[in-house]
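Take a look at the protein record below with the fold in mind.
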Amino acid sequence: MFKGKVSKVLVFGLACMAVVAMLALSACGGGSSQSSSSSSSSAADGEYKLVTPGTLTVATSPDYAPMEYQENGEIKGYDIALIKEIAKHLGLNADIQNQAFDSLVTQVAGGKTFDCAISSITISDERAEQVAFTDAYYDSNLAIVVLKDSDVTSRDALNGQSIGAQSGSSGEDWAKENLKDSAYTPFQETPDMLAALRTGKIKAVIYDEPAAAYNIAHEYDDCTILEVIPTGEQYGIIVNTDNVALAEAINNALAEMQADGTIAKLQEECFGAAK
């Protein structure tokens, strides 16, 4: 597990992204990638299965900057840079495809279309009933976001108010469990959720703190974090339960990348500083 070493990339680190934007273009770029090198974590060694031989077919929902997002038709972000490096360590191509977040677990569990998914997916017992998780690669918390001029000044003030979260997310789970007196609306994508907040359709949104901090710092400066919810959740990459060997190979690649400085380099290029 990489808890503590790859954790809590918050607004202060994210604000530095503009300084390293040019560096990030190469490491955090999207689309497919191809590697001519391989590490000890090879398909032959791991005996894992792939949807397409020689290619790691990856699902992601690119609406969660800075972790995964689209820019000029390319899928970019820290998660994308990370999975491309993992594929490189495994000696594989990486084919990264855009999918709805609330379909990721189901599609990977089906085992026919995708080898894995990476998309700021919180490790949970409920999800682990359908898919297998790799070791955690990132730590996070949730945040309640409101407009700066909102009359909502505390969590208690949300009782009876309209709130939103991304469908299938840990934010949705938390909202349903902890704000039962509020009117909940699910959203497929983060921009739609924030647009509803701006237009007054909902009073607050609940989603991951790194993404919330990034959005506020870069595009939604009329919003603010009302409260950070210390959930201590961790992100993992999901694979099919019949393909645990792939999870083990990814774990080996993560360990190698931690040891050789690759993860620190990706963090600096994608966030502005190693965490």
